[in-house]
């Protein structure tokens, strides 16, 4: 039975909602109609009792008039006997027709008698009865009987009573109820139809966001990550459904963003593995060649053996340097490195990094100078990581600067933080290579020893560290005349915005082709090109896990005596 009922029940939520609403309206109409009819019936019953009492009074008064007009003596004798004239008049068919058809509209029983000791005693010949012969129009007969109605005639001698009882009266009660009930049928039908239409409209309005949510969810499940609930359908339902649709759209947007990040990281990892394989192939192939030559007899020649061993040592150093840089860059990109932000003097980190490069610059015959202001530059930064940035930039400058060249490193305060510049008089950067200089393993295409050496990871590490500090890196280069790398750092990275993917999103490089109209025009005979890398920002606050404030109580030499 229950399964049969379930099969008959509608399967869609909209149909069930419509059916439920219509059922409630129908039940309400039924209960209201029953209540109204019941109250009307009670009112008509009360009115009917009053009307029957009035009819009984009219009959009694007519009997008194008839009795007094037909009898000279009292209609009822002291012996409690009705006068023959009165008896004769009350049994006449004409008089009974007047009493039943015109006055009572009911079957009647009339009794005449005396009051003996406070009790009505009917006369032996004082009981008369008659039935309705012609039903009145518009009325229906009811199987009821009234209580006996006694009408006293106190002016007679002796006083007597006329008792009237009505039975099976004709009334308007049933007809009125039938008319009211008949009127409720079309009214209820119209109300039911209107309720059905309104229920369908409201059910559709309520279920439209649910259908759109279902369609969007199905689209997401099928891989359409751009699927959303249309905005014009979000506001048509209730506020709860609209809020649900808005939250679904927000969830879908975050899911799409997360999947896109995962895809990007997957592609990046695939490219990273390909680049690593390519970079490892060169030193491994060289080591294999040296080993084969030594095995084939080159070891017998001391000069060649020494040359091969020296070359092998250089390739091993390159492998070690490559592995260290890959590990460092992987930590930076994965967010495993926490910035140790200290409110120290930036000059100390810059000078320390430059001092470590003096020997390499002197060996290549390059002048290396550092310029710092007299006043301390106190900003929150990670001294070790900023030193690594300066060391990588200076190392690059040394590698691309010819003997007799010059490298100038300077640090200056700014209103929003500080700026570090590394300027060299080297070979410059080809404009076509500018968009790629911060990519991993990019070493340029110019055929010279400087561009063919190194791991190609130094600038990528620079970009990652600057991004973690919420700063920017800009490059100005003039082919054949050198390059200038400028690092701008904020006063407090914690007060800035985190990058949209935790401070590890790729920067962007722009050449003069996409520069703003205010960029300086290129100098004739020597192309001057600018590349800019800025950290991607979002409106979310910086994540506490990206930095660690472990300010030391000890100060560097440049911080001694500086005011805070």
Structure explained in plain terms:
With 564 residues, this protein is of the alpha+beta class. It is built from 13 helices and 14 strands. The strands form four sheets. Strands 8-9-10-12-11-13 form a six-stranded mixed β-sheet. Strands 2-1-5-4 form a four-stranded antiparallel β-sheet. Strands 3-6 form a two-stranded antiparallel ribbon. Mean pLDDT is 79; it is low at 446-452 and 497-564.
Q: Could you state the order of secondary-structure elements as H and E?
A: HHHHEEEEEEHHHHEHHEHEEHHEEEE
Shape: rod-shaped
* Strand-residue proportion: 15-25%
How many DSSP helices?
13
Helix content range of the residues, please?
40-55%
Which strand order does the major sheet show? 8-9-10-12-11-13
What is the CA-atom radius of gyration, in angstroms? 56 Å
Q: What does the main sheet amount to?
A: 6 strands, mixed
Query: What structural class should be given to the helix and strand makeup?
Result: alpha+beta
Query: Uncertain runs with pLDDT below 50, 5 residues or more?
Result: 446-452, 497-564
Q: Based on the structure, what is the oligomeric state of the protein chains?
A: single chain
Q: What separation lies between the terminal Cα atoms?
A: 86 Å
Mean pLDDT: 79
Q: What is the β-strand count?
A: 14
């Amino acid at each position: 039975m229950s399964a049969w009922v379930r099969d008959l029940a509608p399967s869609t939520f909209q149909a069930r909602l419509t059916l439920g609403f219509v059922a409630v309206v129908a039940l309400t109409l039924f209960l209201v109609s029953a209540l109204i009819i019941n109250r009307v019936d009670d009112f008509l019953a009360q009115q009917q009792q009053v009307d029957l009492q009035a009819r009984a009074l009219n009959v009694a008064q007519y009997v008194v008039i008839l009795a007094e007009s037909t009898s000279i003596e009292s209609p009822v004798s002291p012996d409690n006997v009705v006068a023959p004239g009165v008896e004769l008049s009350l049994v006449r068919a004409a008089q009974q027709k007047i009493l039943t058809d015109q006055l009572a509209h009911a079957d009647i029983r009339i009794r005449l008698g005396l009051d003996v000791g406070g009790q009505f005693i009917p006369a032996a010949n004082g009981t008369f009865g008659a039935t309705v012969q012609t039903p009145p129009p518009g009325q229906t007969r009811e199987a009821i009987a009234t209580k006996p109605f006694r009408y006293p005639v106190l002016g007679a001698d002796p006083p007597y009573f006329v008792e009237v009882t009505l039975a099976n009266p004709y009334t308007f009660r049933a007809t009125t109820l039938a008319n009211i009930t008949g009127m409720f049928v079309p009214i209820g039908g119209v109300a039911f139809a209107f309720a059905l239409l309104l229920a369908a409209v409201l059910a559709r309005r309520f279920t439209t966001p649910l259908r759109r949510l279902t369609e969007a969810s199905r689209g997401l499940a099928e891989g359409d990550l751009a699927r959303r609930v249309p905005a014009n359908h979000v506001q048509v339902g209730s506020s709860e459904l609209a809020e649900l649709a808005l939250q679904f759209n927000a969830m879908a947007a975050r899911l799409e963003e997360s999947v896109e990040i995962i895809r990007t990281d997957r592609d990046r990892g695939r490219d990273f593995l390909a680049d690593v394989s390519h970079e490892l192939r060169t030193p491994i192939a060289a080591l294999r060649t040296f080993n084969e030559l030594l095995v084939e007899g080159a070891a017998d020649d001391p000069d060649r053996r020494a040359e091969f061993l020296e070359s092998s040592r250089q390739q091993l150093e390159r492998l070690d340097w490559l592995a260290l840089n890959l590990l460092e860059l992987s930590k930076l990109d994965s967010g495993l490195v926490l910035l140790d932000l200290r409110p120290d003097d930036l000059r100390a980190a810059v000078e320390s990094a430059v001092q470590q490069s003096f020997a390499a610059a002197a060996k290549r015959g390059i002048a290396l100078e550092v310029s710092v202001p007299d006043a301390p530059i106190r900003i929150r930064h990670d001294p070790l990581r900023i030193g690594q940035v300066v060391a990588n930039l200076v190392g690059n400058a040394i590698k691309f600067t010819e003997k007799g060249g010059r490298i100038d490193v300077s640090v200056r305060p700014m209103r929003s933080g500080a700026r570090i510049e590394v300027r060299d008089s080297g070979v410059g950067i080809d404009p076509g290579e500018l968009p790629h200089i911060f990519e991993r393993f990019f070493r340029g295409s110019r055929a010279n020893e400087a561009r063919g050496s190194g791991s190609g990871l130094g600038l990528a590490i620079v970009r990652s560290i600057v991004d973690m500090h919420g700063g920017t890196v800009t490059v100005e280069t003039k082919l054949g005349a050198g390059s200038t790398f400028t690092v701008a750092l904020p006063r407090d990275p914690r007060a800035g915005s985190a990058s949209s993917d935790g401070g590890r999103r790729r920067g962007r490089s722009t050449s003069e082709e996409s520069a703003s109209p205010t960029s300086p025009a290129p100098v004739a005979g020597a192309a001057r090109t600018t590349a800019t890398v800025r950290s991607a920002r979002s409106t979310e606050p910086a994540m506490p896990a990206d930095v660690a404030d472990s300010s030391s109580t000890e100060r560097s030499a440049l911080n001694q005596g500086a005011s805070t």
